[in-house]
Amino acid sequence: FKSQALDNADVLLPIAPFTETSGTFMSMEGRVQSFAAVTRPLGECRPAWKVLRVLANALGLQGFDYETSEQVKDAIFGGEKPSAMVWRSLNNNLKELVEIHINIKHDGLQRIGEVPQYESDPIVRRSVPLQKTKYNIKPMARMCASQLSELGLVDGDYVLAKQDKGSAVLTVKLDNHVAKGCVRVAAAHEDTIGLGDLMGDIAVEKISAEQFTAHEAVTMEARG
């Protein structure tokens, strides 16, 4: 997909999505599974591994002579049954013990973040029908009733959320599923792109409806 990244690019190498390539993956239980493409890559797109192979060929590097993903898999497993190799080579036995020091935080708010289901990858983010469903909700500052009361907020208020060096203007939403001392703010959205990690310190302060409207106008103008 075209994006602002092209502003600083000299060459564009279109990569096919996972649905348009074959390959093999290993599940968390150690099961090796192969899959086929559901359709041919669009236009000049090619699977990422093929793009890397051609680049390596152009640079004269060795070990990049595969024509299919099956050949890559066979080279990895050496003709052996994948499940046999996995069970022999992988296990959950600890070889080293690392001392972990836990710091318990008693003050301030913690962000609880998540990636909404229809913002998870480039395909669903660009699906017009999915973006129109009731599950595609703008990020809000979700807090439980006791937390709202402590901060002097009510459902529908507006806050300026600050995390790391970024900030976001959000609508307050009552959500008693959120633990006290936490603010649930979704990520992977233009409204919250300036914030920090999914989990971490966050501060919120109430702003007026006029400030919220002014911020929205500036944001819309910046997005064109």
Kindly report the spatial arrangement of strands forming the biggest sheet: 4-6-5-8-3-7
Which stretches are low in confidence, meaning pLDDT under 50 for 5 or more residues running?
none
Look at the structure and give the CATH class of the largest domain.
Mainly Beta
* Major sheet characteristics: 6 strands, mixed
Tally the helices: what do you get?
7
- Name the CATH architecture of the largest domain: Beta Barrel
Number of DSSP-assigned strands: 8
* Portion in beta strands: 15-25%
N-to-C CA distance: 19 Å
Number of domains: 2
Computed Rg: 24 Å
Order of helices and strands: EEHHHEHHEHEEEEH
Structural class comes to alpha/beta
Q: Would you tell me the overall average pLDDT? A: 88
Shape: extended
How helix-rich are the residues, as a percent range? 25-40%
| CATH topology-level fold name of the largest domain | Barwin-like endoglucanases
Textual characterization of the structure:
- By secondary structure, this protein is of the alpha/beta class.
- It folds into two domains: 7-89, no CATH class; 109-222, Barwin-like endoglucanases (Beta Barrel).
- 25% of the residues lie in helices and 19% in strands.
- The chain contains seven helices and eight strands; from the N terminus they run ββαααβααβαββββα.
- A six-stranded mixed β-sheet has the order 4-6-5-8-3-7. A two-stranded antiparallel ribbon has the order 1-2.
- A hairpin with a 2-residue loop joins β5 and β6.
- The two termini are 19 Å apart.
- The relative contact order is 0.12.
- The model has no long low-confidence stretch (mean pLDDT 88).
